[in-house]
Amino acid sequence: MPLERNVEAFLGCDAAYEEAEIVLFGAPFDSTTSYRPGARFGPAAIRHESYGLETYSPYQDADLCDYAVFDAGNLELCFGDSGLALGGIAARTEEILGDGKLPLMLGGEHLVTLGSVRATAVRYPDLHILHFDAHADLREDYLGARLSHACVMRRCHELLGDGRIHQFCIRSGDREEFRFAGAHTELHRFGFEGLEDIVARLRAAKAPVYLTVDLDCLDSAVLPGTGTPEAGGVSFPQLLEAIRIAASCRIVGADVNELSPMLDASGMSTATACKVVRELLLALLKR
Length: 287
What we know:
Elements: E1 22-27, H1 42-49, E2 56-57, E3 62-63, E4 69-74, H2 82-98, E5 102-107, H3 112-123, E6 128-132, H4 152-160, E7 165-170, H5 175-184, E8 186-189, H6 195-205, E9 208-214, H7 236-246, E10 250-257, H8 268-285
Parallel strand pairs: 1-4, 1-5, 5-10, 6-7, 6-9, 7-8, 9-10
Antiparallel strand pairs: 2-3
Helix pairs in contact: 1-8, 2-3, 3-4, 7-8
């Protein structure tokens, strides 16, 4: 009797595609990382280590076994060409949205968000972004490269325009980025103050929202396994509460990015990332 093909899915995300409400996929790309590389290994590590968790969340009294999520695995992306990589991500996001499902992408460095946002903005022209991150990511270019993880929100702003990007936990960036944010985005420094008000406004407008979670929004003492760690940041419970608040919006796409698993030999950063993904999935599925 031949062996069956083994497919390693994120914990509890083994529903048939046709039945799934959410489709998980990985974007293992880190070619523009400006400090410590390794985020390309994040999606695989999150899947592999997710088996250290229960499917049940005591935070939300919910269980992944009660919902239908399909894990499509990792995309095969061109490491030498950011444009090609972003095109592949956009195509996968477009396919998932076209089938009436919610895409949840695992990065990878933060540039991967641009590919997913490009496809999502085509389907939802009035799209807003909720952005949790240590970094503003609003540079015009980084060392001459306009497609860089340091520029991802600047490129998203070019797609969406003023007042449609809402940034939280930001504690790093050059002076020009903060000046740009003051004129063009809603930037909240250091934490989640103001999130409930913005979410209430987005809910009232029934606006489609893309949620992007850069794991370095967490204090680097909580999650050191990331390419550009920043002292300060929020606690794990604070991030989970922010995710639950954000999920009450009309979320139409989401991602979790910037885990570099080999930069934390203890494995705690990966374990934390797994729990963030579980809690995000459940927050979205419970709506």
